[in-house]
Records
---
Amino acid sequence: MKTYYVGKVKDEAEFRRRIAPGPKAVFFASPARETAVIEEYPWGGDYQPRAYGLCFEAPDAFLVYLAAEEDHVRCEVTEDNGPVCTDSCLEFFFQPASASEDAGYFNFEWNPEGVLHLAYGKGRHGRFHMKDRTGKDFLIEKQKRDQIRTDGWWYVAFRIPFSLIRRHVPDFDPEGPILGKGNFYKCGDQTEHPHWGCYAPVGTKQPDYHRPEYFAELISAGQPESGDQ
């Protein structure tokens, strides 16, 4: 099982400072063990865009940053909980640590306009779609459309409140060393060059992100660095 280390920040302002240099600079500046490079493309294809994810633990939420380098993006879905995976899409699936066998996982799926598909459940089927929540409830910031054309990168930064997690997984403990399991994904089902990438490899014959048995272990990296105090 692959292991990803979740960094710590003292607040959202510190998180914003860390991502302020932009996705390319952040990619090269971030510690390797805290950078989930999406470089596994187990289902082939010549188009394999550079993409990565970062996850930080703040006092009341996880703060997540997803970024991809793409010259041409598809962004057609405009309604939250729509099929954003058909657009240029970045995703983070998270299964909180729990003693309960009934605990499921969240799937946060974003397109470049900050449109969110969010659900919770134990597998692909029978998921609870959070239709009362929109991307604006979680989004911290995103790359502006004109900057995507200029920089060749797009990104989304968002929060996952612990209160939301505990609503579905009451015994989740963000203070524990093992925070859960998860995976970071890059896809685009109906883009000019369809592609399906992941951080932790998925051992299925066809693209399938709803496979928690292949999730990476998410471990706390410890306290914020001394320079961030």
Note: The longest helix spans residues 12-19.
---
Amino acid sequence: MNHLWTGGNGGGSGNGVARWVPALDVHETDDAVVLRLDLPGLDRDDIPSRLTATC
């Protein structure tokens, strides 16, 4: 996830190709890490998600 926090404002990759980075909020509870993304125009059920944990 470090690439989300580095590289400036996310407005481009330096090669003339623009990229879009959604607004992201991350917080931790006692039993979970919660990610909330702002994805306008999409319904929650339309977004596939998968979590893989390695220890």
Note: The mean pLDDT is 76.
